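Hi W.,

Here's what went into the run:
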Amino acid sequence: MGHIKAYYEGITPVDESDWQYIVRLFEWVSFAKGDILTAQGSIEQFLYFIETGIVRYFICQDTIEKTFDFGFEKTFAGAYDSMVLRTPCGYQLGALTDVTAWRISYDNLQQMYQHTKIGNAVGRKLSETLYVAKSKRELALLNLTAKERYLSLFSERPEIIRRIPQKYVASYIGITPQALSRIRREIC
Amino acid sequence: MGHIKAYYEGITPVDESDWQYIVRLFEWVSFAKGDILTAQGSIEQFLYFIETGIVRYFICQDTIEKTFDFGFEKTFAGAYDSMVLRTPCGYQLGALTDVTAWRISYDNLQQMYQHTKIGNAVGRKLSETLYVAKSKRELALLNLTAKERYLSLFSERPEIIRRIPQKYVASYIGITPQALSRIRREIC
DNA sequence: CGCCGAGTTGAACTGAATCAAGAAACGTGG
DNA sequence: CCACGTTTCTTGATTCAGTTCAACTCGGCG
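Here's what came out:
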């Protein structure tokens, strides 16, 4: 769990007693490519810290599937809105590759918030980080054209373009794979 | 500042010593309709708790203006992403009506986080609330048609439709005023 | 009364979706 | 290691939602 500790220490100093308490709250899990971590309609029970692999956030409606976010190694992932509100999740979380992760249950997370000195501080930081990302995305979706959104991925989140199949990237920027294919032809 | 106290008590119990400390950190401000609270390109210095009135979040590019959010009475408002990251704000915050508010500076907010027992808990809750709102909005922008987004405003945030001029509502759901006008004709 | 901004309506245009088919890449088993 | 089937990507033709430009109506206000 060294990566989690490093992550927390990037936010606030972590003393040994807090850390000993926190270590017990996480469990190790692994998923095969394609596995569902969180089903649509369920209430998210876990917050994941991805050690290896990539997860994908997507919605299924009728036969079509829309991908709207990804979670990479050494970051926290999960249907945090469902987890916070305790309401059914409007989307799914799936393993895009084989995935290994540490995860903490909702109840244990509340324990961490209540019983450690750093709990609320790291929880606040996590929420802020998630908020800032969505905030930036909102502006991109409202103000940029599809081509501009694709180009901005190069500067903002190049790992998405490098590591993710095009059909999911297309979905992420809010267009069809066909439209993305045409945009790429124009650019290159 | 009773409304702020009530807001915090909805999150976690507030003891008297914390409250005495917090009270000193806020200041009272008022704005006339049309005033700019936060300029595009500046770094947000304040978090506002709106007592009366409505604020509007918008982007100016060339001659056109795009509105993407509103802040109502008894809620916190401000360019929180700019405030958190200490980076120039990509949008503006303006008074849609006359506005009165309590505001807390970035530095004072950090004081509150460090020196009160409830600081990080209420900060976490605020961030979570903001995150959940943006998260819901992301799904709406990606998955719903303009008409569906307009209809969902009726159920989700009816006060926007009741109290906000149509041209801003149009912008909020990501279309032109003309397109919204046509959608309304279809519905009614 | 006349002006001005907000809202409506019409017509032409456009970016992206959809439908459909072919080409390339990928993985799996023989 | 190759052959086959499956999935992904590309390309073309058509359609459609929403934009743009422009004209007109309405209501409030100096």
